[in-house]
Amino acid sequence: MGMSRRFDLPGTIPIFPLPGALLLPRARLPLHIFEPRYLAMLDDALKSETRLIGMIQPDSMAERDGGTGLHRIGCAGRVTQFSETEDGRYMITLTGLSRFRVLKEVEGFTPYRRCEVSWEGFERDQSGTESDDCFDRAGFLKLLDRYFDARGLSADWDTLKEAEDELLINSLSMLLEFEVEDKQALLEAPSLQTRRETLVTLIEYALRGGGEDIIQ
Predict the structure, then answer these.
(1) Is 62 helix (H, G, I), strand (E, B) or coil?
(2) Where are the beta strands (DSSP E) in 85-216?
(3) Are residues 107 and 180 in the same domain?
(4) pLDDT of 7
(5) Which domain of life is it from (predicted)?
(6) Residue 132 included in any domain
(7) Fewer beta carbons within 10 angstroms: which end of the chain, N or C?
(8) How many domains does the chain have?
């Protein structure tokens, strides 16, 4: 029984559109809140039973049709940590609960955006940690090493080797820098295995784009 079972997921949630910010079920996303409208959103979220905020990426294509300007699928997180800085900003942590599909934007009096959402089709998000039975961890870490090396990044390899499949794949999906559409593909992957396959494709593509000398 996941923590999401303690309450009914609401039909309307506050929306935080942020390009490149990816939240996935059971993963944690630290956020720095300082804009007045998002401070108001945080205040309202903390007063609610579920303390949910829906992370979603803007979609420039969706604006052309007179739409919301948002991707159709996002992920809601529960505010699990927050602290205030001396100058009135907040550092918060969202823990991913479930993905959702935007049905429509709700007109209202809040300074932040709210949407009617559907949770259907994402039941797996709430049913506990996923594993990836086809995961070649050694091969994956080798590829990751080349990627980090090519970009001058460092990693705590002991932690990466020990991390559960889901934590490893989802954390990297959230942390590595990819285009908005690529991040969206990682979010929408129907299973952990598909997300891992997508992640591998993106890393391989980035390595190829970095110059032929990177490829062994």
Answers:
(1) helix
(2) 90-106, 113-118
(3) no
(4) 60
(5) Bacteria
(6) no
(7) C
(8) 2
